[in-house]
Amino acid sequence: MPQHTTLLITSPPAGLLADIARQRPDWSLVPLGDLPPQQVPGGKIWGFVDWLCPTMSGLELCRRLRESDATRHAHLTMVLDEPNQEAKRRALLAGADDYLVGPLDALRLLERIDSLGDKDAPARTQLVHGAITIDPAAHQIRISGKPVPMRPNEFRLLVHFMEHPDQVFSRSALIDRLGKDGEALDERTVDVWVGRLRRSLTAHGLPDPLRTVRSLGYVLDSVEN
């Protein structure tokens, strides 16, 4: 049975929620205000946050969503006013997983969710790398047997590295893996994603498993399991 989906969205344009509700009647649609919702239904949570919200910046709202227990593991997309590289970098640093240039409409929003959902489609075998075990079907990571929560971008990155150990991936290749559009990106954004993955793992007692290959990219060296 498919898991429930909740959509969080700031200042939705007139008719947008109605259009989405007609196409995805089983979804929970939650307009976002200044504070994250205290509770959301279980399942997958997708959030779309405007760069400028009515009473605060989208960056601040994104940080609040990341700090809230209810929305900490949501997939957050920052909706930018224009394709500005510095804005993209700041969005990722504030906790966004993704970004697109507005304005939003139902077609673009659903296409983005569907495309990212397809990239999250689970494999059927477990992945093991030392103390790290991933069950892609359950979207679960364990370190030394203990479940470890991880945000969507970090999860996809780690799965990709563990599926392809001992291969160096350039920043552009990792951008493609995370489902970004074919736009020109500041490659520093990849360093943000990799840095967050490293911190997620080392925070649970692991040595940094990723190796930086100067001028080329990143690699996960294989280990004996």
Ordered list of secondary-structure elements with their pairings:
Elements: E1 5-10, H1 16-23, E2 28-32, E3 44-50, H2 58-67, E4 75-80, H3 85-93, E5 98-101, H4 106-119, E6 127-129, E7 132-135, E8 140-143, E9 146-148, H5 152-163, H6 171-177, H7 188-202, E10 210-213, E11 217-220
Parallel strand pairs: 1-2, 1-3, 3-4, 4-5
Antiparallel strand pairs: 6-7, 7-8, 8-9, 10-11
Q: What features would you describe in this structure?
A:
The chain has 2 domains: 5-119, Rossmann fold (3-Layer(aba) Sandwich), CATH 3.40.50.2300; 127-220, Arc Repressor Mutant, subunit A. The two termini are 33 Å apart. The protein has 7 helices and 11 strands. The protein has 225 residues and is an alpha/beta fold. Strand 4, helix 3 (85-93) and strand 5 (98-101) form a beta-alpha-beta unit. The longest helix is centred in the C-terminal third of the chain and has 15 residues, at 188-202. The mean pLDDT is 83. The strands form 3 sheets. A 5-stranded parallel β-sheet has the order 2-1-3-4-5, sandwiched between helices. A 4-stranded antiparallel β-sheet has the order 6-7-8-9, with helices on one face. A two-stranded antiparallel ribbon has the order 10-11. Helix 3 packs parallel to helix 7 and helix 5 crosses helix 7 (188-202). The radius of gyration is 18 Å and the shape is globular.
